[in-house]
């Protein structure tokens, strides 16, 4: 079993700037997230479609760790502080909304 911390970016991207937002996340922020200590995997998911009435979540970040303790190490790290600064800079240019986090236990059955 692994632990995954999800960040759901609930809100809107500045009209007409979705491509620029995605490029900025991948080039400016993803390298910072990849540097987190103890991270096993970093997944960036950009939303293309949603159900009618569902909230807009243009970005979901999922970082997987070997344990809950590893999450705490990453959250207390200078790498996380650098990632937060880079994220805030991109969001200030393109995003209006809120971010909420969820820590989950993963149980996988791969076909």
Q: Would you mind describing this structure in some detail?
A:
It is a single chain. With 111 residues, the chain is α+β, with helices and mostly antiparallel strands. It has a domain at 13-56 and 94-100. It is 38% helix and 33% strand. The protein has 3 helices and 4 strands. The protein has helices at residues 18-34, 68-75, 78-94; strands spanning 2-13, 41-46, 59-65, 95-106. Helix 1 runs antiparallel to helix 3. The mean pLDDT is 96.
The helix/strand class is: alpha+beta
Radius of gyration: 14 Å
Distance between the termini: 17 Å
Q: Which residues sit in consecutive blocks of at least 5 with pLDDT less than 50? A: none
Morphology: globular
Strand content: 25-35%
Structure summary, number of beta strands: 4
The average pLDDT is 96
The main β sheet shows up as: 4 strands, antiparallel
Give the strand order of the largest sheet, numbering strands 1, 2, ... along the chain: 2-3-1-4
Write the element-wise H/E pattern from the N-terminal end onward: EHEEHHE
Helix content: 25-40%
| Number of helices in the DSSP assignment | 3
């Amino acid at each position: 079993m692994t632990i995954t911390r999800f960040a759901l970016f609930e809100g809107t991207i500045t009209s007409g700037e979705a491509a620029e937002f995605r490029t900025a996340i991948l080039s400016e922020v993803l390298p910072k997230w990849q540097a987190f200590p103890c991270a096993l995997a970093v997944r960036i998911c950009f939303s293309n479609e949603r159900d009618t009435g569902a909230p807009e979540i243009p970005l979901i970040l999922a970082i997987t760790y070997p344990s809950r303790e590893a999450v705490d190490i990453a959250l207390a790290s200078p790498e996380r502080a650098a990632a937060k600064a880079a994220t805030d800079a991109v969001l200030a240019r393109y995003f209006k909304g809120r971010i909420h986090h969820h820590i989950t236990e993963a149980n996988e059955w791969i076909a």
